[in-house]
Inverse folding.
C-alpha cells in the first residue's frame, strides 16, 4: 500500500511540475500576444494584474504552481487535491491549444 501512495505522490508532483511549465509558457505567450495586440487576457483578475504590473503578472503566474509543489512536499495529498491538480493541468492544456490556434492564425496571416 505504501508503494501506491508513493507512486501517487510522485505522479502528483510530476503533474504539478508540468503545470508550472504550462503556466510559464502561458504567461510568456499571453504577454507576447497582448504586447502585439493579437489577444487580450481573458481572466479578469490576471488582466488587472497584467495592466498594473507585468512583473507581478509573471511572478503570480509562476509562483502558484511552485507554492502547490511546496505544499505537496509537506502534507499528505488528499484525493481532492489530486483531482484539482489534474483538472488544472487539463485546463492549461486547453489554454495551450488556444495559444497555438492564435499563433497559427498570426503566422498564416503574415505569410
Amino acid at each position: 500500500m505504501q508503494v501506491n501512495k508513493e507512486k501517487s505522490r510522485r505522479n502528483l508532483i510530476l503533474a504539478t511540475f508540468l503545470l508550472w511549465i504550462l503556466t510559464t509558457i502561458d504567461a510568456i505567450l499571453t504577454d507576447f500576444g497582448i504586447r502585439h495586440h493579437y489577444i487580450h487576457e481573458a481572466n479578469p483578475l490576471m488582466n488587472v494584474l497584467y495592466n498594473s504590473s507585468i512583473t507581478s503578472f509573471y511572478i503570480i503566474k509562476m509562483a502558484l504552481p511552485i507554492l502547490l509543489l511546496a505544499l505537496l512536499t509537506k502534507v499528505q495529498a488528499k484525493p481532492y487535491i489530486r483531482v484539482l491538480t489534474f483538472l488544472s493541468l487539463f485546463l492549461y492544456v486547453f489554454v495551450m491549444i488556444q495559444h497555438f490556434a492564435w499563433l497559427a492564425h498570426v503566422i498564416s496571416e503574415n505569410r
Observations:
- The chain is about 85% helix and 0% strand.
- The mean pLDDT is 91.
